[in-house]
């Protein structure tokens, strides 16, 4: 009797979680897929089964090749941000995790410094973007310094509301997603392996490249997946820091939602989803994450 | 590795220090600028020091709904926190046993964490629009079929009344505490779940077995044995729950209906407000985040201190 009852325990315990994900995640994804084939009027969406929305999403894309259509250009620009931010956060995140794990000797200091890098994660991203205005604006600190030092005679324009600002802000916000998983992987590395590498004559670089990097692979992969998926879908940073002038895959969707073109937005969302899933799939082929969770 | 500090150490320390400056510098800048004098601008130099912009903010900065947005975000954040803790702990318990669908549920949680927020947000918006259209459609068809018909019965009158009620009163199911709450939970629950995994992976089931052997019911075991042991981690889950909700913008963007949350309002203000009052709002928001972060840390420290002080109460006859 007791056995029979406890067999069902995990089911009701997991039920609230499953319910939330069903109603607010799985069902919405399914709805998005279905609606991407619907039509719309000014104020409502109507059931149908048409490919028009996808045709609109890829308007003249294939006919005009090799010239790139707007959609392809947008995705290319998004992918470029993605690659750049990924590279910078990876190098920065790896360096900082390495420093914390292998150069800091006291455990307490390590915890305090690690917390120092994570605390901003718990504060508002929008404010962290706004914070760049007094630094990078036309009359901002950087321009004041540059002009004061006589390096430039007029304020530099490309610091704010530019691709540079978008990249900076994305790095600013997302490096923590690299640091934490890489740190976690590095903390599990057996120190004697490093000693062994040194003892057998490996240089510090050889040790990093041949011992530490392979053993941190899981952390690197988890961090990369997080950063890449966040940047691929980003529309807040691109909007705010790009002065609403730079296109991104996410921003296209937002614009179409504002124009109440829900089915077209849905079609674009499905395309974005497919691209992101493809990238994640490729990354998962490179490492088996489940092994180390 | 035991000799004095290498050159690499100093170099990396410098990199780390620069990174921390990069991380905190901008936020500190707006903290300072929010105390700008009444005639000061959005950038340095400071034109005197005052609380003018906070006072301005308190009076609603001439922009409607700023204070409403703050209250909305607080209420939603607290609701999300409580639900995240309860649902995560329950799910964490469930995942300690094997159950059918556990893998699927786990991957759904991970997918919810990494899929683009704009897609999730749009999906929820579409779902609720379909709910709305269905309810309005139902109301219309009930009125059409059952109001002012020949031979009405009690039942058709009732159906007609339902239809009229829908037509008169129903506008939308979307809102802060329906679609908005759900959108936030899809973002906070994966974090909560992962923390609970980490907790229960390190949890020794011997304590529960001992409690059970001594005759404790499952609830007593949870309340008096498990809960006190995992309490510090629950502060962590709560910290994630509140701060992630308080700062959430991408998933809220399409899913909160007519009400606005604070981050959404802030984003709107960046294009319309050109005075340091926006920094004052930023300072207030950051202060709330820091208050929550410190509360969580202090909570953990208190629990640990109590634990050290009391140690085991075995044999002391307390319960």
From TrEMBL, chain A:
<keyword id="KW-0813">Transport</keyword>
<keyword id="KW-0812">Transmembrane</keyword>
<dbReference type="InterPro" id="IPR000515">
    <property type="entry name" value="MetI-like"/>
</dbReference>
<keyword id="KW-1133">Transmembrane helix</keyword>
<feature type="transmembrane region" description="Helical">
    <location>
        <begin position="220"/>
        <end position="242"/>
    </location>
</feature>
<dbReference type="InterPro" id="IPR035906">
    <property type="entry name" value="MetI-like_sf"/>
</dbReference>
<feature type="transmembrane region" description="Helical">
    <location>
        <begin position="113"/>
        <end position="133"/>
    </location>
</feature>
<dbReference type="GO" id="GO:0005886">
    <property type="term" value="C:plasma membrane"/>
</dbReference>
<dbReference type="GO" id="GO:0055085">
    <property type="term" value="P:transmembrane transport"/>
</dbReference>
<keyword id="KW-0472">Membrane</keyword>
<keyword id="KW-1003">Cell membrane</keyword>
<protein>
    <submittedName>
        <fullName>Putative spermidine/putrescine transport system permease protein</fullName>
    </submittedName>
</protein>
<feature type="transmembrane region" description="Helical">
    <location>
        <begin position="12"/>
        <end position="40"/>
    </location>
</feature>
<feature type="transmembrane region" description="Helical">
    <location>
        <begin position="158"/>
        <end position="183"/>
    </location>
</feature>
<feature type="transmembrane region" description="Helical">
    <location>
        <begin position="83"/>
        <end position="101"/>
    </location>
</feature>
<comment type="similarity">
    <text>Belongs to the binding-protein-dependent transport system permease family. CysTW subfamily.</text>
</comment>
<feature type="transmembrane region" description="Helical">
    <location>
        <begin position="262"/>
        <end position="284"/>
    </location>
</feature>
<feature type="domain" description="ABC transmembrane type-1">
    <location>
        <begin position="75"/>
        <end position="283"/>
    </location>
</feature>
TrEMBL record, chain B:
<feature type="transmembrane region" description="Helical">
    <location>
        <begin position="277"/>
        <end position="303"/>
    </location>
</feature>
<dbReference type="GO" id="GO:0005886">
    <property type="term" value="C:plasma membrane"/>
</dbReference>
<feature type="transmembrane region" description="Helical">
    <location>
        <begin position="221"/>
        <end position="242"/>
    </location>
</feature>
<feature type="transmembrane region" description="Helical">
    <location>
        <begin position="104"/>
        <end position="126"/>
    </location>
</feature>
<feature type="domain" description="ABC transmembrane type-1">
    <location>
        <begin position="70"/>
        <end position="302"/>
    </location>
</feature>
<keyword id="KW-1133">Transmembrane helix</keyword>
<keyword id="KW-0812">Transmembrane</keyword>
<feature type="transmembrane region" description="Helical">
    <location>
        <begin position="9"/>
        <end position="35"/>
    </location>
</feature>
<dbReference type="GO" id="GO:0055085">
    <property type="term" value="P:transmembrane transport"/>
</dbReference>
<keyword id="KW-0813">Transport</keyword>
<dbReference type="Pfam" id="PF00528">
    <property type="entry name" value="BPD_transp_1"/>
</dbReference>
<feature type="transmembrane region" description="Helical">
    <location>
        <begin position="76"/>
        <end position="95"/>
    </location>
</feature>
<keyword id="KW-1003">Cell membrane</keyword>
<feature type="transmembrane region" description="Helical">
    <location>
        <begin position="181"/>
        <end position="200"/>
    </location>
</feature>
<dbReference type="InterPro" id="IPR035906">
    <property type="entry name" value="MetI-like_sf"/>
</dbReference>
<dbReference type="InterPro" id="IPR000515">
    <property type="entry name" value="MetI-like"/>
</dbReference>
<comment type="similarity">
    <text>Belongs to the binding-protein-dependent transport system permease family. CysTW subfamily.</text>
</comment>
<protein>
    <submittedName>
        <fullName>Putative spermidine/putrescine transport system permease protein</fullName>
    </submittedName>
</protein>
<keyword id="KW-0472">Membrane</keyword>
<dbReference type="InterPro" id="IPR051789">
    <property type="entry name" value="Bact_Polyamine_Transport"/>
</dbReference>
């Amino acid at each position: 009797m007791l056995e029979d009852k406890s067999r069902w325990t995990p089911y009701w315990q997991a039920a609230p979680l499953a319910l939330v994900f069903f109603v607010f995640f799985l069902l919405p994804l399914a709805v998005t897929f279905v609606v991407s084939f619907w039509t719309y009027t000014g104020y409502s969406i109507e059931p149908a089964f048409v490919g028009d929305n996808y045709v609109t999403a890829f308007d003249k894309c294939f006919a005009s090749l090799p010239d790139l259509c707007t959609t392809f250009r947008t995705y290319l620009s998004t992918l470029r941000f993605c690659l750049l931010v990924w590279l910078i956060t990876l190098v920065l995140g790896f360096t900082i995790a390495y420093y914390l794990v292998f150069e800091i000797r006291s455990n307490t200091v390590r915890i305090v410094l690690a917390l120092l890098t994570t605390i901003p994660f718990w504060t508002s991203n929008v404010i962290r973007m706004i914070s760049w205005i007094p630094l990078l604006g036309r009359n901002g600190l950087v321009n004041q310094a540059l002009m004061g030092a006589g390096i430039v005679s007029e304020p530099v324009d490309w610091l704010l509301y530019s691709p540079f600002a978008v990249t900076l802000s994305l790095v600013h916000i997302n490096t923590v997603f690299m640091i934490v998983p890489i740190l976690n992987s590095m903390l599990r590395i057996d120190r004697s392996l490093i000693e062994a590498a040194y003892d057998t004559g490996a240089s510090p670089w050889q040790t990093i490249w041949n011992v530490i990097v392979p053993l941190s692979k899981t952390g690197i992969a988890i961090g990369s997946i997080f950063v890449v998926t966040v940047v691929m879908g980003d529309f807040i940073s691109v909007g705010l820091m790009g002065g609403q002038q730079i296109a991104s895959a996410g921003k296209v969707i937002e614009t179409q939602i504002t124009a109440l073109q829900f089915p077209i937005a849905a079609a674009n969302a499905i395309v974005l989803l497919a691209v992101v899933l493809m990238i994640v799939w490729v990354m998962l082929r490179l490492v088996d994450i489940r092994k180390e969770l | 590795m035991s000799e004095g500090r290498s050159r690499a150490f100093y170099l990396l320390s410098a990199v780390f220090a620069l990174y921390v400056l990069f991380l905190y510098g901008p936020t500190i800048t707006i903290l300072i600028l929010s105390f700008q004098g009444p005639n000061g601008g959005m950038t340095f130099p400071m034109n005197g020091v005052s609380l003018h912009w906070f006072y301005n903010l308190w009076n609603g900065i001439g922009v409607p709904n700023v204070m409403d947005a703050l209250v909305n975000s607080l209420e939603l954040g607290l609701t999300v926190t409580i639900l995240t803790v309860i649902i995560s702990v329950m799910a964490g318990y469930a995942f300690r046993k094997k159950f059918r669908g556990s893998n699927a549920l786990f991957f759904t949680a991970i997918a919810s964490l990494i899929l683009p927020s704009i897609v999730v947000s749009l999906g929820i918006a579409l779902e609720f629009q379909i709910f709305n259209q269905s309810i309005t459609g139902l109301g219309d068809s009930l009125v059409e079929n059952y109001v002012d018909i020949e031979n009405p019965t009690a039942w058709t009158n009732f159906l007609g009344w339902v239809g009229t009620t829908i037509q008169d009163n129903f506008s939308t199911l979307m809102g802060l505490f329906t679609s908005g709450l759900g959108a936030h939970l899809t973002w906070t629950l994966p974090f909560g779940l992962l923390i609970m995994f980490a907790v229960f992976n390190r949890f020794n089931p011997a304590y529960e077995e001992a409690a059970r052997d001594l005759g404790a019911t499952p609830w007593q075991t949870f309340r008096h044995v498990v809960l006190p042991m995992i309490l510090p981690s629950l502060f962590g889950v709560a910290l994630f729950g509140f701060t992630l909700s308080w700062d959430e913008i991408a998933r809220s963007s399409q899913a909160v209906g007519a009400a606005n949350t604070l981050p959404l309002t802030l984003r709107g203000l960046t294009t319309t407000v050109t005075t340091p009052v926006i920094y004052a709002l930023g300072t207030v928001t950051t202060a709330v985040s820091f208050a929550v972060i410190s509360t969580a840390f202090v909570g953990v420290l208190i629990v640990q201190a109590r634990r050290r002080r009391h140690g085991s109460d075995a044999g002391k006859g307390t319960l």
